[in-house]
């Protein structure tokens, strides 16, 4: 499975593409950062981010997109920009009909480091090891994006299988219930 991980940001949006399967280390396909000019009008920045994400989705053809979920910070303007970038990322994936998932920072840290409170240095170190990279990805936004992709690769596939099994079980139960009701009507 090929997953594009996105660490949303309005000035720097980290993008990491990983290929692999649950339980395996995975391979880095690409890592980059889409940048926008902080001095540009907001609408232009959002458009530039959308253009960059759409181009990368076309280039790398992921099967799923995972985005870090926006979390509350003390700096409200930073949260708003991150939320706007997250919305653009989810919209770009939806336009292509790709399944999307969001993960909290602690979910990503726990999946990659085994510790939901790991710091940026630990995340970068673990991503470098997990993907068997010769050097650490830079900047931190890029390493975070790869961590998000790895998180989805390892956890998203399992979540999707559990959800699929739940839906299949519900359909089976509904079919059995309908068959039992039809049989009961036939005995009358």
Automatic annotation (TrEMBL):
Subunit and partners: Homodimer which binds Holliday junction (HJ) DNA. The HJ becomes 2-fold symmetrical on binding to RuvC with unstacked arms; it has a different conformation from HJ DNA in complex with RuvA. In the full resolvosome a probable DNA-RuvA(4)-RuvB(12)-RuvC(2) complex forms which resolves the HJ.
SUPFAM superfamilies assigned: Ribonuclease H-like (SSF53098)
Known EC number: 3.1.21.10
Entries under PANTHER family matching the protein: CROSSOVER JUNCTION ENDODEOXYRIBONUCLEASE RUVC (PTHR30194)
GO molecular function annotation: crossover junction DNA endonuclease activity; DNA binding; magnesium ion binding
Keywords assigned: Cytoplasm, DNA damage, DNA recombination, DNA repair, DNA-binding, Endonuclease, Hydrolase, Magnesium, Metal-binding, Nuclease
Annotated compartments: Cytoplasm
The protein's name in its UniProt record: Crossover junction endodeoxyribonuclease RuvC
CDD domains in alphabetical order: RuvC (cd16962)
Role of this protein: The RuvA-RuvB-RuvC complex processes Holliday junction (HJ) DNA during genetic recombination and DNA repair. Endonuclease that resolves HJ intermediates. Cleaves cruciform DNA by making single-stranded nicks across the HJ at symmetrical positions within the homologous arms, yielding a 5'-phosphate and a 3'-hydroxyl group; requires a central core of homology in the junction. The consensus cleavage sequence is 5'-(A/T)TT(C/G)-3'. Cleavage occurs on the 3'-side of the TT dinucleotide at the point of strand exchange.
Record-listed Mg(2+) 2 binding positions: 68
Entry note: cofactor: Binds 2 Mg(2+) ion per subunit.
PROSITE patterns: RUVC
Catalytic site: 7, 68, 141
Family membership noted in the UniProt record: Belongs to the RuvC family.
This protein's encoding gene: ruvC
Swiss-Prot/TrEMBL catalytic activity: Endonucleolytic cleavage at a junction such as a reciprocal single-stranded crossover between two homologous DNA duplexes (Holliday junction)
Names of the cofactor(s): Mg(2+)
Pfam family, one: RuvC
The species this protein was found in: Glycomyces albidus
A Gene Ontology cellular-component term: cytoplasm
């Amino acid at each position: 499975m090929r997953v594009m991980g996105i660490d949303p940001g309005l000035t720097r949006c980290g993008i990491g593409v990983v290929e692999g399967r649950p339980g395996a280390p995975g391979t880095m396909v690409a890592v980059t950062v889409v940048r926008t000019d902080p001095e540009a009008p907001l609408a232009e920045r959002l458009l530039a981010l959308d253009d960059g994400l759409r181009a990368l989705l076309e280039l790398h053809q992921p099967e799923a997109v995972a985005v870090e979920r926006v979390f509350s910070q003390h700096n409200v303007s930073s949260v708003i920009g991150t939320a706007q970038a997250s919305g653009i990322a989810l919209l770009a994936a939806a336009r292509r009909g790709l399944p999307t998932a969001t993960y909290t920072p602690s979910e990503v840290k726990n999946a990659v480091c085994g510790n939901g409170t790991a710091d940026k240095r630990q995340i970068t170190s673990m991503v470098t090891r997990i993907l068997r990279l010769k050097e650490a990805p830079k900047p931190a936004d890029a390493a975070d994006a790869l961590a998000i992709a790895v998180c989805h690769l390892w956890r998203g596939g399992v979540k999707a299988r559990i959800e699929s099994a739940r839906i299949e079980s519900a359909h089976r139960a509904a079919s059995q219930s309908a068959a039992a009701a039809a049989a009961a009507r036939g005995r009358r």
